[in-house]
Write a structure and sequence with these properties.
heterodimer, A: about 80 residues, alpha+beta, Alpha-Beta Plaits, four-stranded antiparallel β-sheet, about 30% helix, globular, B: about 375 residues, alpha/beta, Aspartate Aminotransferase, domain 2, three-stranded antiparallel β-sheet, about 40% helix
Chain lengths: ~80, ~375
């Protein structure tokens, strides 16, 4: 197992939103990748966007630019 | 065999569609049910298909494209999810049973009242009929974009202006036009566009969907696994998850995505022009043949690529069988799940033989079909 790091976690209402996030971040060269939602955030299931904490402004800018709404935005060890 | 039953399903698909399905069946996990590579690959493919459908149909939001198994399922979701007790719905005589039966059931259960704009002997409607049938409790117009029997197209933009003017919803069945005629649901004023993947879109069977305009709330018709919000007792309210309980047909949607990419690259206008040319070539070849009756209005500039006809008073099933057995031409006889349209045309007993053309048909095939009709007409003359 790799060592856990403090990361920015963005959760979404639907998988479609998560896929849109991945597509837009790739297009706009924003950092991060899709991972399962950490248990510390939600006991449900689904995908979330995991990115370095210092990219929060860039991630917010991407989401604002493309009109994507998060369910929640967290920082946690993953 | 010359395949002219494309209004039932297109037989020949772009090779990219077959390749995409094959690749998906080798590699695809369950979309939205994990974050490993196979699952993400499926999610990406399906999301890409949503984006293509939104682009193809003028739907403002890809996440408002919900996939289903076919147009019938999409129409059932829309019709059962939009109406409340006391609502009045207007439809038309052009409809397929996929529209009629869900509406009839709601009517028989006392949920809605229902009226139809009648069609004349050429299969046309009087658009003033919508105004005449309008009531204070009217909630929606549910109608096809084109008749699967005559090929006559309804002017959705005109109906959309009527529904917008009176605060109604417009639910459109694009089963015969998706991929064949340009569609822009925003410009046309369509609130819910239902489509199938295996006809004009040239994708696999078992695919379809509905595009929902932002702000339109459809109650989920089925609920269940969604991959998100697993501890919630109710279906997530957000589109498309709201309408997509259960595992999607990911393999099929991979093919549908490839088919829509083919159409976006080729251009629906190009496909439309080719199909129209074949349909008109065939029509011109048979329209004046002694004993042949052609149904529908061929003066209209826009039509689905369908020509339905009868030869004398012969059973349409016998003619279709002779076309298949003696001329190797595949057509569709009978009622075509369009009972009101057949009543309007006066063809309930005889049915009709439907010839329908696709992007992969050729002029030679249309000409062969003309020769076959002429020969059968001659053989059945007294």
């Amino acid at each position: 197992m790799r060592k856990k790091e403090l990361m920015l976690i963005v959760t979404f209402h639907t998988t479609a939103d998560a896929m849109a996030m991945e597509k837009r971040c790739k297009q706009l060269q924003a950092p991060g990748r899709l991972i399962p939602v950490p248990r510390s955030i939600s006991a449900g299931c689904g995908l979330c966007w995991c990115a370095p904490t210092d990219s929060q402004e860039q991630i917010r800018a991407v989401m604002a630019q493309v009109g994507l709404r998060e369910e929640a935005m967290h920082t946690c060890m993953v | 065999m010359i395949y002219l039953d494309n209004a039932a399903t297109t037989l020949i698909k772009p090779p990219q569609v077959i390749d995409a399905v094959t690749e998906a069946m080798r590699s695809m996990g369950n979309a939205g049910r994990g974050a490993h590579g196979s699952s993400l690959s499926a999610s990406r493919v399906i999301y890409d298909a949503r984006c293509k459908a939104a682009e193809l149909f003028g739907c403002a939001r890809p996440d408002h494209v919900a996939f289903t198994g076919n147009a019938t399922e999409a129409l059932n979701i829309a019709i059962n999810g939009l109406f409340a007790p006391g609502d009045h719905v207007i439809s038309t005589d052009l409809e397929h049973n996929s529209v009629l039966r869900p509406l009839y059931r709601l009517e028989s259960e006392g949920v809605i009242s229902l009226d139809f704009v009648p069609a004349d002997r050429r299969g046309n409607i009087d658009y003033g009929g919508f105004d005449r049938l309008l009531r204070p409790e009217t909630r929606a117009v549910v109608c096809t974009h084109a008749s699967n029997l005559t090929g006559n197209v309804l002017d959705l933009a005109r109906i959309g202006r009527f529904t917008r003017q009176h605060g109604l919803l417009l639910v459109a069945d694009a089963s015969q036009t998706a991929g064949c005629l340009p569609i822009d649901m925003e410009k046309m004023g369509v609130d819910v566009l239902c489509f199938t993947g295996h006809k004009g879109l040239m994708g696999p069977q078992g695919t379809g969907g509905l595009c929902v305009r932002e702000g339109v709330q459809i109650r989920p018709w089925k609920v269940g696994g969604s991959g998100v919000q697993s501890y919630s007792c109710t279906q997530p309210p957000e589109y498309p998850t709201r309408l997509e309980a259960g595992t999607l047909n990911g393999h099929g949607l991979a093919g549908l995505g490839a088919a829509m990419e083919f159409l976006l690259q080729t251009g629906v206008e190009t496909v439309h022009a080719h199909e129209q040319a074949l349909m008109r070539r065939f029509y011109e070849g048979v329209r004046d043949v002694d004993g042949v009756t052609v149904y529908g209005d061929f003066t209209a500039s826009d039509r689905a690529a369908i020509v339905s006809l009868n030869i004398r008073d012969c059973d349409s099933g016998e003619i279709s069988d002779a076309l298949a057995e003696e001329h190797a031409i595949a057509t569709r006889p009978g009622a075509h799940c369009a009972p009101r349209m057949h009543r309007a045309l006066g063809t309930v007993e005889q049915g009709a033989v439907r010839f329908s053309f696709s992007y992969y048909n050729t002029e030679d095939e249309a000409d062969a079909a003309v020769r076959a009709v002429r020969q059968l007409a001659a053989e059945t003359a007294c």
